[in-house]
Design a protein that fits this description.
β2 (30-35), α2 (40-56) and β3 (59-64) form a beta-alpha-beta unit. This protein has 2 domains: 15-128 and 257-274, Rossmann fold; 134-251, NAD(P)-binding Rossmann-like Domain (Rossmann fold, 3-Layer(aba) Sandwich). The chain has a 6-stranded parallel beta sheet with strand order 1-11-8-7-5-6. A 3-stranded parallel beta sheet has the order 3-2-4, with helices on both faces. A two-stranded antiparallel ribbon has the order 9-10. The chain has helices spanning 8-25, 40-56, 69-81, 100-107, 118-125, 134-147, 165-174, 189-193, 238-241, 255-274; strands at 3-5, 30-35, 59-64, 87-90, 154-158, 178-182, 198-201, 219-222, 226-228, 231-233, 247-249. By secondary structure, it is of the alpha/beta class. It has 10 helices and 11 strands.
Length: 275
């Protein structure tokens, strides 16, 4: 029987650490959050995020993205220069006309909580202490929870994005795992994933990973959250892998709550750096 892993308990342990750091800080961390106000799913996510932050003692202030690239650049620069703010968070999707790394550069390394500023991303790539993208860190923590030591483990990461695949691969290499990164141009995905002890999939393709893609007893970390008529699904075809995979992370309650906790952890780290 395949185990379905939820991340709530791990997220709560991260929350405990956040509360301890806020006590040490002596005040509420303050973060500006930019969202697409025309998106109903984004508004619902922002509401849940606000409630979770309030329980931790973090102050979030929400605003919509400016509508033109020039005004958006000015908006990000103003937030970066605001001494009342510890951090600036940009929720996806970003408006047309600006790339995530460009936004992170405007925000600056100190207030960047997405881990995309070249300084933060570069430190992570070099194996130094860094502020990593929240989803990538959430995956790393979940893998550690599920597998323990990763020394020598065969891990395949499906997806080479700057917010999941690439930073996660760096963190897994630091844990002495043997890492393969697959992507849209990979010729035979199953040839790689069948060798893996752990498969992390962040491709955003419903049902991409089935029984034919995995070895017996594999651990599957499903990062994707895809809206379908049947509800929310991930990259893993649960019916197909049931009984063959040892563990599959729940969608959306596997990596999702851990990611939110890691994002707030980055906000607190920014506040501690500010003082």
């Amino acid at each position: 029987m395949t185990r379905i892993f939820t991340g709530h308990a791990l997220a709560e342990r991260i929350h405990d650490g956040i509360r301890e750091k806020i006590v040490r800080l002596g005040r509420a961390p303050r973060c500006a959050v930019l969202i697409d106000e025309t998106s109903a799913p984004m508004a619902a996510y922002a509401s849940r995020q606000r409630e979770a932050a309030a329980r931790l003692g973090i102050e979030l202030s929400f605003a919509g993205y400016e509508t033109s690239p020039e005004r958006l650049h000015d908006q990000l620069a103003r937030l970066a220069a605001d001494p009342r703010l510890d951090a600036v968070m940009t929720l996806y999707p970003l408006p047309t006309g600006i790339e995530p790394v460009e936004a992170a550069v405007l925000i600056g390394p100190d207030k960047d909580v997405d881990g995309l500023h070249p300084l933060n991303a570069g430190l992570l790539a070099l194996g130094a202490a860094a502020r990593p993208p929240a989803t990538a860190r959430a995956c790393r923590l979940a893998i550690g929870e599920l597998a323990g030591s990763l020394r020598g483990a065969e891990i395949v990461v499906v997806g080479a994005s700057r917010i999941v695949g690439r930073p996660l691969a760096a963190m897994l290499l630091d844990a002495e795992a043997t890492v393969t990164v697959c992507h849209v141009a990979t010729r035979d995905l199953a040839e790689h994933t069948r060798r893996a002890d752990i498969v992390v999939s962040a491709a955003g393709v419903a049902g991409l990973i089935g029984a034919a893609h995995i070895r017996d007893g594999a651990i599957l970390v499903d990062v994707s959250i895809i809206r379908t008529e049947a509800g929310l699904v991930g990259d893993v075809d649960l019916a197909s892998v049931d009984g063959k995979a040892a563990t599959v992370t729940h969608v959306p309650d596997g990596i999702g709550p851990i990611t939110t906790a890691c994002l707030f952890e980055n906000v607190v780290a920014a506040a501690l750096a500010t003082g």
